[in-house]
Fold these 4 entries.
Entry 1:
Amino acid sequence: MALLAAAGLGAAFLLSGCGGSSLPPEAVVRAWNDAVVSRADDRAAKLIARDAIVIGADGAEQVLRTPENAVAWTRALPCAGLVRKLQTHQDIVTVTFLLGNREAGTCSAAGGTMTAEFEVRHKRIVFFRELSRTAAPVAAPTAAPAPAASGG
């Protein structure tokens, strides 16, 4: 019994002081993004706090009051992204993603980029705002073939 109590105290110590509670904000955002990319919507939603505020590109604000709201919001995301740039200032993480399709969705902005701002507190995302989006680069037109030289 004493061994179980000692193990419990050791686990509590590890979680409270030696890295368990010191997960940096950028690690939370990367973990959320990894879950979104792999379509693990429940896992992504667990990284979102109750009453988190999300603001889309159109400025519409939504409050994710429950874990079910967070799952539904995550599931509705049409795009996934590869992290291209990440900057952290205290609890604020600004990320630029290269957008692509999720496993079961169609991303109309695939090939473009999206920059978003996340605020992370206590290892949970409490605020998300899309800051900007750029369209996929348009392929340069190919040159018309040169007319064949006539021998004459």
Entry 2:
Amino acid sequence: MRILVVEDDKVVREALVSLLIEEEYVVDAVSNGDDGLFAAQQGIHDMLVLDVMLPGISGLEIIKRLRASGSTTPILLLTAVDSVDDRVAGLEAGADDYLVKPYAMRELLARIKAVLRRKGNLVTRGRLSYGGILLNSKERDGFIADEPLGLSTKEYEVLEFLMLNKEQVVTREQLFDRIWGFDSDTTASSVDVYIHYLRKKLAPRGLDKLIHTVRGTGFMLKERL
């Protein structure tokens, strides 16, 4: 699970990042609204934790622009103002939940998990399945008829993202930013290399055909086109 934190207060931001990493989330963090909107628009995050008051674009404006573009990424809104009008404004803009500062870290984690469950982004018992492939997040491997695929870390993460977005086109850029990160020294050609590795491991069961190349765009995991 990858979470984007958009928070301008350095102390709060670093505390959030540390907490989420301890809970085994992958975390990206930015300190202003403009960077937050850009990062959120890449479509690589499972959830956004978003402050309302930010330098540049406000948290509410970020939500409005994301929802207007069709993004359904779950959003937990952090607000320092405990008023009905502000809470309603956030929810009406498209936030899935809100939390008033100061908050308990345990409550923050609980709300994140609750939102992910409601939106279907929290994998039940750490498992994902599609087209005869089962992914087990605890073992960090894939299985076909109980036989392990022996996936490397990157192979697992690529396949997981494809399965989380099954039957949807995932661009090379999305895969690269999701798996390697915005600041990686490698190039997007790594995506094609790992897609090749995955197909090779799926081929003995004829499941390599589940991964379709969408010419000029990226890839799609689908049983039939």
Entry 3:
Amino acid sequence: MLLTEILHPNVIKTGLEAEDKFEAIEDLIDVLIQAHELPLSKRDEIRDEVFERERSHGTGMECYIALPHATTDKVDDVIAALGVSRRGIPFDCHDGLPARIIILLLLPKRNFQGHVRTLAGVAHLLRNAAFRDALIASPTAAAALKLITEEEERYLLAEQQS
């Protein structure tokens, strides 16, 4: 699954200012609520599920990336929010660096294969250091989405040519 299939400008927050990973997760859940991707009535349950996952197995990766996520019966389809922090947020990343690109994923429990494809697609996209740097520097949600779209198009073209 491509990020452009689940992201749109209303679920992207550049200038994320959270002080820690739990505040970042809450901010991104609120982005999903404001974008009408998630009803306010599910906020606390979703937050608790993502926090539980984060406490049991941290989602800070490396290269400034964190992928907080939860599988839940509270959503029917994969939904996501992207947060970009220029200064970084402590996320217990494997390389000790703060997370600057945070992608919150909410995955329906009934679709394990879809989870694997979604996480693999995100991981592939974020391997490119120049892309990560450009994404971190994105001034707006629209600019960030344009970068993601262009990177995924390059990936798809390379896949077709190989």
Entry 4:
Amino acid sequence: MTVFAFSVTPLGVGESVADPVAEAVRIVRESGLPNRTTAMFTEIEGEWDEVMPVIQRATEAVGAGGHRVSLVLKADVRPGHTGQLDAKIARVEERLAADEMEGGHS
């Protein structure tokens, strides 16, 4: 199982890229795979062979109309682990809560 973080942006379309980026996010959400969108990246979790076609479709949608596209892709490949989209954050939050109970970090 892999958690992917990606950002896809059309180049040369002006200052606002909200419309094409929204289309990419729609494609990710319609995939049915666990996902989350933040101000900088969209994260999606699944097997390589099921996630990469989603990222490809999102990239193609952003490039519709012949626009050049910038794609940044990062992957955390961790076989045998599922639910890491939320579990990774939960582990950090647990550490922060433990630090707060102990009166801060050392």
